[in-house]
Amino acid sequence: MANDMQPSAKLASKDVDIAYGHRLIVENLNLAIPARRFTALLGPNGSGKSTILRTFAALLKPSTGSILLDGRDVARLSTREMARKFGVLLQGPVAPEGLTVSDLVRQGRYPHQSLFSRWSAEDQQACDEAMVLTGTVDLANRMLDTLSGGQRQRAWIAMTLAQQGDTLLLDEPTTYLDLEHQIELMKLITMLVAKRGKTAVAVLHDINQAARYAQHLVLLKAGKISAAGAPLDVLSPDIIEDVFKVKSVVFQDPVTGTPMCIPL
Amino acid sequence: MIRLLVVLIGALALLVAASLAFGDVPLGWDELYRVLARTGQAQMQSEMIVWDLRLPRVLLAALVGAALATAGTITLAVMRNPLAEPGVLGINSGAAAAAMGVIVLMNDPPVGLLQVAGFAGALAMALAVYALAWRSGTSSLRIILIGIGLSSLATSFTTFLSAFGDIGDVQRALIWLAGSVYDANMVKVRMLALWLIIPLILAFLASRELDLIRFGDHGARSLGQPVDLVRSLMILLVTLLSGAVIAVAGNIGFVGLVAPHAARRLVGASHSRLLPVAALVGAGLVVAADLIGRVIVPPAQLPAGIVTGLIGAPFFAYLLWGHRHGK
To answer: What is the pTM of this model?
Structure first.
């Protein structure tokens, strides 16, 4: 834990409480997200993963405490400034009817535009690049509601990439994807972190996938951090039983050397 | 897009010309041409009918339609509900209650006062709905629910007044509320045009905001939109637009719902294209409704508001039908 609060934290919560109405979901959270790493938030349903992610994205206000981005309180940033720094993909995002993929991706440029500014070459380049990275170029003119779940998810990710923020916050990005697209997405996040210096935080359900692709795991239980650190240090049968209430054995993945958990 | 605009403007021009030519006293196309071209060969009577009676009426109808369609387009986007129209903000019922109050409680009020009261009622209702829906931020659904609640409250107040008011007063109020452009004149047209121009321009400038707000509160906010601010400004625009329309023309229903849906069929979801097309469609609808109302059962004149309902309801059913059975 002490190791976790090192100054290279990109994003951190300091003594944060989060409540829905009077119900306290997260209490006294001190969580640090390392810069230029892929961090996975893991935990059972209702453990507060999504709530924490939304609070990092400033969509929820902590009832006490503060969220720090590069050491500065995000409450001071305007909504627009936030959107230039964070690309956020929510769970089950809703798009208005009648949008094409390229319409959707173009929305990602909103925080970079002002009332009278026109669509610029820079905007176009950001969209083109986002669509190349997510493999959605061929879908550009397709209507969003005619796409498969996986294609649609990639279009949404393209939109968040077009924002060109250096931090990505992804809430269960793999949920509706088949195995191939799940792995493709994990590789895309890994690449963005390694090659583009992005900081990525994703809520994931698959422990083994998280252990394989993420460099930093945070295990949450009832709004509190049970363990945080590199997969090899964190994933042990004891912690998994504590967090998920499942007995398991942990092997080393024969392909990547990362830990692999098999429930008993 | 350009071609579509040309077609729509052409269709609107045709409707306007037909409205100028037809009515109690049909003029015929050649006589209309002589009047419009100011050849000096037209009859005095035709000149008067076109310039003093029909032109202000047609222009007022077009303005009313454009404003209602724009307000409807904004409401659809902000409320994210395909059935939401400016009425859900309580605008219509607020205006109705205020106007009924003035008509019944005052002896023979001037038309100007009636219009001011109608607008004030609309504004007060929209503000009340918004204020009651505010709970450290608003939500579209809360606005819709509170709007429906307050609307029925205002409607029962109107009914109460009409039950106890003088029968003549009540009838005048009801005619006004039915929605009509029959007592148009150029002063009215100019005033409404001046009033509408700024909200219409602002709505068009806000098309990017409208595109984005439909993504839901969290979605729009994570893309950098101050959602509550945008929503309140848009509701204010809607109130300015439809409040003014109700004040001069009463309740002309369905245009605010049908025009945006039709426009979306024509040009898709982007508001920079949607808004002008919806405005043209709306203008055409009200001009057509007024024309039909004048010629369908002469010499009686059906108020445009009734005709838009007659056209609007089946059209709306058709839209829903298409919706259910995939475009």
So the answer is: 0.88
CA distances for A4 relative to A9, A33, A41, A259, angstroms? 8, 8, 14, 20
Q: How far is B216 from chain A (nearest CA, A)?
A: 7
- The CATH classification number of B2-324 equals 1.10.3470.10
**A-chain residues near B208 (CB < 8 A):** 110, 113
Up-side HSE of residue B225: CA atoms within 13 Å toward CB? 30
Domain ranges of chain B: 2-324
Of A54, A79, A107, the CB nearest to B226: A79
Q: How confident is the model over B43-65, as pLDDT tens digits?
A: 888 888 888 889 999 999 999 99
Q: What is the mean pLDDT of residues B165-190?
A: 81
Which residues on chain A are in Cβ contact (under 8 Å) with B326?
A: none
- Here the ipTM equals 0.86
Rounded CA separation B116/B109 (Å): 11
Q: Which of A82, A94, A163 is opposite residue B215, by nearest beta carbon?
A: A94
The answer to whether residue A105 is domain-embedded is no
> What's chain B's average pLDDT?
87
Mean pLDDT, range B298-315, rounded to an integer: 82
Rounded to a whole number of angstroms, the distance from the CA of A109 to the nearest CA of chain B is: 8
- Report the DSSP beta bridge partners of residue A17: A64
Number of domain units in chain A? 1
Q: Do A96 and B80 touch (CB under 8 A)?
A: yes
The closest alpha carbon to B259, from B287, B288, B282, B289, belongs to B282
Residue with tokens 């129209």: B85
* Domain span including residue A57: 2-93+165-263
Can you give the CATH number for the domain in which A193 is found? Answer: 3.40.50.300
A95 touches chain B (CB under 8 A): yes
